[in-house]
Fold this protein.
Amino acid sequence: MSKAKNPTRIWLSQPHFESSDIEYISSLFERSGMATAYQNVGIFEEKLAAKLGQNVVALSSCTGAIHLAIKALEIKENDTVICSTFTFAASANPILYEKAKPVFVDSETLTWNMSPEYLEQAIESEIKNGQKPKAVIVVHAYGVPAQIDRICEICKHYQVPVIEDAAEALGASYKGKMLGTWGEIGVYSFNNNKVISTGGGGALTTSQPEIIEKIRYWASQSREMGLPYYQHEAVGYNYRMGVMAAALGIAQLEVLEKRVKQRRKIFNFYQENLDEKMLYWQPELTENSYASRWLSSALIKGEKVNNFVLYDFLTLNGIESRFLWKPLHLQPIFKQCAFYGNNIAEQLFNKGISLPSGNDLQLSDLKYVSQKISNLLL
């Protein structure tokens, strides 16, 4: 792991750039200037596509990617879209952009991700109500694979397309297939706190060329190409990834596998060095599952200490932590939305915490965090 930083402040997940990243960007502009630099968006897309095995469009954010995915599936006002409740608001906000109606599905205990049982219940119930869902947005929380094979099988049975939110799961796989490539459309985030970063950015992937064409068109302000002037025949968006972000992304992709291995080692260290009487770690499907472990997350056992107390204690000791996702069906903006489940996600929120997991952490940092937690919980 990298050179030590100030030991009095251990961050949750800082952006981590190699010296080679900066050198690459500098040499790029010294060599070729801005005109050739624009080609790097395409190069980044090609390199990411090679890792995923299907086409990619690089975008300015994962939120924008979800928005364009919803448009590509022709979701309109008052249409129903099912979404994981245990996730960041950006997974569901784009549903509202198109004036559609979110319907939230609870987690299951096996992975903390969308429950296949409650998903099927939600689809059947919405169909009975005359509102067949137009899509399902399934999230791989903290980089741990959902039961994506079962979820895709259910959605295929009811002919409902899957948008796979792999914002936290680039580099993770299930049954040898990369997360984000199971559904009709997959999306990724390269935000500052992710396993690799472009300083902000996202991507959309699909095996369907016609969707790729639509996404490229909309993301570039729906500009009609091949004309000597600007012409626009549809509403467009400023969602294309910038050239600087793409250049950084090219360099960062070179270390993706190494970064995921580091995150998994961090998770394993916590799991091995923190007494099992204290914490229950986010589980992973035992067969053919390879989590990216974006954030090492756990539930606090017992009633002695809750996550508010642990959060405050860690903060006082110079350690950044974070509560688990507050379920979206409990958020004020979504309070009128339907919910199917048994409040598993709410229990996760009430008992859970995410610990420092960044690729810049040293062994001494991990030992310090573990010791402080043990001092409080044991």
